[in-house]
Amino acid sequence: MAFEAEGRRPAWGSTPARPEGRAYLQDYAALLDAVSFPSVVIDHRWDVLLANRAYDTLFAGIGPHPTAMPRDNLLRFVLFHPDAGTVLADHEASWCLPMLAYFADAIERHPDDEELTAIRAAVADDPFMDAAYQHGVPHWIRSVGAEAVLPDGSLRPLRHPDPRWGLTHCRIVGEAPTTLQAMGYSRLTLVLREPRRAPDIRRTSRRARRGTGHLRAVPASES
What is the pLDDT of residue 147? Predict the structure, then answer.
């Protein structure tokens, strides 16, 4: 179940103390586990409140890290975990830069948030990442449009540990039902795309031979 700690911090995170709120989230966790694609509930800091089994499977091979585990904070994981690129393909361009844009939007909305301020300090400690944050992000937003600061709808490459998926892409679908939104949470689902299969050379060859034979059978036009 999504609520089993398994050595991680409690999955309830900052859940409202009211019993009805907890009951709703418990039912929502059951909904997540019924989804076959990786799905996660986060707050404005990108702290992970709930995640389903498919999400855990996607990141099953990730090594330990004191502050950037995918089950703790998705923003920190993308930016700071050294193993992130093993799952998030084209890591810097396709994941880090957009995530820095999402982060810039979040810290603008919540300038006094201690966790976001701490993440900003960690970004500043990395000269390459800080340059990307201060210069790359504004340029990227100008290029793709201001709506890019919302992850919903974006298409990103990833490398799934299950060889049936392998190197593929996912469409990020963001949603926030009224009750979930009132609690300050939203949901992200990584809808995996079927990987493109290599063409069957033998079948292509047969089609080519049939095509050639057909062309030979067409009579020449009379002059």
Answer: 73
**Domain residue ranges of the chain, discontinuous segments joined by +:** 58-174+186-215
Residue range 46-105, pLDDT digits in tens:
999 999 999 999 999 999 999 999 999 999 999 999 999 999 999 999 999 999 999 999
DSSP per residue, 13-25: TT--SSHHHHHHH
Give yes or no for a contact between 107 and 149, defined as CB atoms under 8 angstroms apart. Answer: no
Whole-model pTM: value is 0.80
The whole-angstrom separation of Cα 179 and Cα 124 is 36
> Could you tell me where the DSSP H helices lie in 14-173?
19-33, 53-58, 74-80, 84-87, 97-109, 114-124, 127-131, 137-144
